[in-house]
Amino acid sequence: MTALRDLIKDPSAAELELIARYGGFAEDSRRERSFKAFAMSGLPHRRMEAFKWTDFKAKLKALDGGKSGRVDPFAAVAGHVITVTPEAITGLDKLPEGLRMVTRDDGVAFGASEDVPMGALTAALTEQTIMFDVTATPGQAIRLVYQGAGAALFSRFVFVVRPDVELRVFESHLGGASLNASLVRFDVKARAQVERTLIQPSALGEAHAITAEVQLDEAGRYTQTALAFGGDVARIETRLVHQETGALAVVNGAYLAADGHHIDFTSHIRHGARACQTQQRTKGAVMKGGTGVFQGKFHVPRNVGQLTDADMQHNALLLEEGAVVNAKPELEIYADDVECAHGNTCGALDAEALFYMRQRGISEAQAKAMLTEAFIAEALEAAPDAARDILLQTAQDWLGV
Amino acid sequence: MAGMLTLSDLHATVGEGAEAKSIIRGLSLEVPAGEVHAIMGPNGAGKSTLSYILTGKDGYEVTGGSATFNGEDILAFDPETRAGKGLFLSFQYPVEIPGVPVMTFVRTAMNAQRKARGEEEISAPDFIKKSREIGKQLNLTAEMLKRPINVGFSGGEKKRLEIFQMMMMEPKFLILDETDSGLDIDALKTVSDGVNALRAPTRGMLVITHYQRLLDHISPDKVHVLAEGRIIKTGGPELALRLEKEGYDGVIGEAV
Fold first, then answer.
1. Which of B78, B89, B99 has its CB closest to that of A377?
2. CATH no. for residue B247?
3. A269-292 residue pLDDT tens
4. What residues contact residue A348 under an 8 Å CB cut-off, 6+ apart?
5. Contact status of B79 with chain A (Cβ, < 8 Å)
6. What is the structure's pLDDT at B230?
7. Are residues B95 and A377, on separate chains, in Cβ contact within 8 Å?
8. Which of B52, B93, B97, B166 to mutate to test the interface with A (most CBs of A within 10 A)?
9. What was the pLDDT predicted at A159?
């Protein structure tokens, strides 16, 4: 154990517990690689460029338990439910037709370990990785319900979506543990389509690290819609690669951060093939004492990235004085025949619009709520019908519309 | 006859601290129920400021005098309460509000006003029926009423949408701020017809305008000339015609 202890310099109580968990696994080179990648930094902190605004180390000092028992906003969405708790994963029997499951008790390599420390940690500490081979379009959606408790919840799913197959996934990140860490991977084969819709309710007293890896083959389509309310610290990270020509990715999200909440949307999208499209729209609204973070990057290599068509928009509302939004949109473009755009705005609600609404009899609070809802709604438009109204309703409840 | 809207010796500034600028300087005015009063004046006379003070916009401070509406001190209330009490402003520049559809907005506003007055909400079928009828009168299609408020509307369409809201909400008192600006002749007729349809013994109107032409369509009971923050002359409809002929300079020069 002494050697393990030394993996992280000056470990915190939380990090000591993570080391102990790792020590409980049988020796495994893939697990080791991931954990060592994580251990390079320990829980990522503000002195690291990618985490300068999102400090897991400072916000997660000890793993002393979260708040369980949150209601699942997607409860009414039809689908096959798979529930992930620290004790077990249920719902793996009687899978919808088209899904074939393989479980892996050993470590499964996580290629981005060096770049995504929270993903590396999740890969290292997930006991059993669940892999689905999706060979035909399932008759129903898959609903992943993450219900943590106690110190930490780690989980990992891999979906290999075969050519021409369509898959719809809803994720409910209900928290409950001090650290709620999930990793999901979508291999979207030729002309296959994946729709991923996720919700992360308010989780004060908890940390969330929700990481997705996506790989798109020829003419593959991926649509992601996320609505997140943050927690002590929360990051929704998406790493997407356009691997073959003609792929389309829609990566949307909205965050609503109240007092004491921190929510981070980070994405890295690589246009590794010709003529691929990315549309990214992130909207946020933050109250006094809340923090929103947006870090988006498009990487377009010189030869393979030609004819890229990509647009990144991030717009945030500071609803009150004392709200914080940090944004870093990055376009790294080496190809010359591309259309790449980005926009980034941060401001207050339009005072003229507020007065106009109040002049018609709408209270200030309701006018603010309506304007904020209208503002973020655009980022939720691409969600499947079954979830869009729920996302909007959840946002409305938060806003008090 | 006591005014439905009574302003006496009103003083107001715009801006804050050392930047504050005196715009309204001793304005007195009485508009009884059932009457339409026009306020005319040159640019910078304080016409729009008056409309904002009466409706409670931020950034304007009343520094003296009083304004009562049906006997109540209207200045004590926030904008939404004033609206609930029946004060409606047709904006000179209606605001675009992306993402909030006209119908949602109007219904929310109507119900908020009704709630403030202790009335029942308007039912969905009643609301739709009424909006269809009024939309038809104003040449506003159902498609336009589904769009976000004022987004992509022409100047004339925005003004018609103001009148639409006015007719839906049936306020007790209307303030029309330069409602004729940006309107072509046909739209002016449509808008005026809408306003005239609301004329009633129980309702007062203040029509703020720079030009006389609107008053050809909405004939006022009284015309007031506003200059340098106060009413300097009051007369009948003939005063508007005289202003049109002689210009503000002539009439104001005579009054001062």
1. B99
2. 3.40.50.300
3. 999 999 999 999 999 999 999 999
4. A317, A318, A319
5. yes
6. 93
7. no
8. B97
9. 98
Residues in chain A, total: 401
Longest dimension (CA), chain B: 56
Measure the CA–CA gap between A226 and A253, rounded to whole angstroms: 4
Helix (H) or strand (E) holding B161: helix B155-169
List, for residues A306-340, the tens digit of each pLDDT value. 999 999 999 999 999 999 999 999 999 999 999 99
Provide the ipTM: 0.96
* Whether the Cβ atoms of residue A216 and residue A188 lie closer than 8 Å to each other: yes
CB A178 within 8 A of CB A63: yes
* Chain B residues whose beta carbon lies within 8 Å of the beta carbon of residue A370: 100, 105, 108
- CA A242 distance to own-chain centroid: 18
Domains of chain B: total: 1
Strand order in the sheet with A129-134: A99-104, A129-134, A150-161, A177-188, A203-216, A231-242, A262-271, A291-300, A324-333
CB pairs under 8 A between A and B: 77
For B139, the domain range is 5-255
Record: contact A370-B100, CB cut-off 8 A:
yes
One-letter amino acid of B241: L
All structural domains of chain A with their residue ranges: 2-348
Q: Are A172 and A144 in contact (CB under 8 A)?
A: yes
Residue A1 has a pLDDT of 47
Taking a contact as any Cβ pair under 8 Å apart, which residues of chain B between 137 and 156 contact chain A? 148
**pLDDT, tens only, A100-125:** 999 988 888 898 888 999 999 999 99
φ/ψ of A111, rounded to 5, equals -60, -30
